């Protein structure tokens, strides 16, 4: 069962594979897994490299920068906790390190979003220990 915070928004639950990612977010750092055997950089966190299936992966700080590859304006909340946030822009971000990440764009109206728009990560506290990575226009 997914834990809810006081706002009614779901909270992610850290697993052994994802704990370093969530710890990094709490410290204001976006972290990605890097394969020490083939050099592949991956997101979302996994036990094995999705490039060569090696277990020899390590966590490294990412730049937190990327570009928007696709987006959609969300007008209907997925749960009551998000009712006050609509409309918002759901984005696919191509991170500078290579992987693509699904997130939400903050500090930008839906009309201002454009393909290849540069963005940078920000973190919003959702609970005492959970910080969620979002993006805002770069600069």
Structure summary:
With 139 residues, the chain is mainly β. It is built from 1 helix and 8 strands; from the N terminus they run αββββββββ. The chain is 6% helix and 37% strand.
Give the helix/strand layout:
Layout: H1 19-26, E1 31-35, E2 41-42, E3 57-61, E4 65-74, E5 88-95, E6 100-105, E7 118-125, E8 131-137
Antiparallel strand pairs: 1-2, 1-3, 4-5, 4-7, 5-6, 7-8
Q: What can you see in these coordinates?
A:
With 139 residues, the protein is mainly β. The chain has one domain. 6% of the residues lie in helices and 37% in strands. The chain contains one helix and eight strands. The strands form two sheets. Strands 6-5-4-7-8 form a five-stranded antiparallel β-sheet. β7 and β8 form a beta hairpin. The termini are far apart.
């Amino acid at each position: 069962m997914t834990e809810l915070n006081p706002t009614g928004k779901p909270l992610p639950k850290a697993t052994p594979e994802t704990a370093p990612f969530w710890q990094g977010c709490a410290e204001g750092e976006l972290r990605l897994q890097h394969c020490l055997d083939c050099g592949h950089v991956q997101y979302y966190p996994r036990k094995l490299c999705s490039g060569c299936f090696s277990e020899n992966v390590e966590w490294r700080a990412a730049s937190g920068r990327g570009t928007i590859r696709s987006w959609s304006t969300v007008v209907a909340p997925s749960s009551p906790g998000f009712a006050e946030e609509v409309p918002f822009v759901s984005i696919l971000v191509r991170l500078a390190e290579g992987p693509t990440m699904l997130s939400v764009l903050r500090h930008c109206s839906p009309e201002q979003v454009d393909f290849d728009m540069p963005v940078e990560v920000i973190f919003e506290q959702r609970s005492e220990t959970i910080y969620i990575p979002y993006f805002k226009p770069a600069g």
